[in-house]
Amino acid sequence: MRIRMFEPRDAEDWARIFHSAVHRVGARDYTPEQCAAWSPAPAPLEGVLAHTQDGRQIWVAADADDVAQGFIELESDGHIDCFYLAPDLAGTGIGAALYERLETQARAAGLASLYVEASEAARRFFLRQGFTDRGRRDFERRGVMIHNYAMTKQL
Ligand SMILES: CC(C)(COP(=O)(O)OP(=O)(O)OC[C@H]1O[C@@H](n2cnc3c(N)ncnc32)[C@H](O)[C@@H]1OP(=O)(O)O)[C@@H](O)C(=O)NCCC(=O)NCCS
């Protein structure tokens, strides 16, 4: 895997990775109803392009054919937004490599801290990266109750 910046040609892979990660990795911790509310279908390309081109930085892990198989997003205020791996890559260390790139860039940019609303799997990941759990957030998405965790890390 090679880590590089997201390009607009990755938009379809972004949508595929997000949807499959929710339904095959997220499913370890969330019910089928919660996963369906989290990602009912792969996001439409126009929406992905608007989301990914709003000024955020996105690193992707690309395979030997240069096809994106995972990504992580950093917003300018230190918010880590989407972080998703194709199911075959989950648990292989690629997520940590993506995160390391993000943290290096955040430090270089002079950010004092990072924050994220983490799923159950991401919570376990971010605890290992030195984040502090600031508490569970229960909320409704598409009519279904779901939860994540507010987490922060001082840099
Ligand atoms: C969150 C995510 C990017 C973390 O990356 P990762 O490299 O898999 O991280 P880790 O190897 O530290 O694994 C974190 C947790 O993911 C889960 N996980 C890892 N590989 C998995 C797999 N192949 N199948 C199911 N769950 C898996 C495990 O529960 C693991 O926790 P554990 O080690 O305590 O059992 C990735 O697991 C993922 O894409 N998850 C689904 C989408 C998601 O929750 N995104 C975060 C939104 S905030």
Helix content: 25-40%
Beta-strand residue fraction: 25-35%
The small molecules bound here are:
coenzyme A
CATH class: Alpha Beta
At the fourth CATH level, what is the homologous superfamily? Gcn5-related N-acetyltransferase (GNAT)
- List how many beta strands DSSP finds: 7
- Radius of gyration (Å): 15 Å
Pattern of helices and strands: EHHHEEEHEHEE
- Spatial order of the strands in the main sheet? 1-2-3-4-5-7-6
- Give me the CATH architecture, please: 3-Layer(aba) Sandwich
Q: How many domains comprise the coordinates?
A: 1
Molecular structure report:
By secondary structure, the chain is of the alpha+beta class. It has 5 helices and 7 strands, in the order βαααβββαβαββ. The chain has helices at 11-24, 32-38, 45-52, 94-108, 120-128, and strands at 2-5, 57-62, 68-74, 79-85, 113-118, 132-141, 144-154. Strands 1-2-3-4-5-7-6 form a 7-stranded mixed β-sheet. A hairpin with a 2-residue loop joins β6 and β7 (144-154). The chain binds coenzyme A. Coenzyme A (COA) binds at residues 21-22, 25-26, 28, 83-85, 87, 90-91, 94-95, 118-119, 121-122, 124-125, 128.
Features:
155 residues; alpha+beta; Aminopeptidase; 7-stranded mixed β-sheet; 5 helices; 34% helix; globular; binds coenzyme A
How would you summarize what this structure contains?
The chain contains five helices and seven strands, in the order E-H-H-H-E-E-E-H-E-H-E-E. It is an alpha+beta fold and 155 residues long. The protein binds coenzyme A (COA).
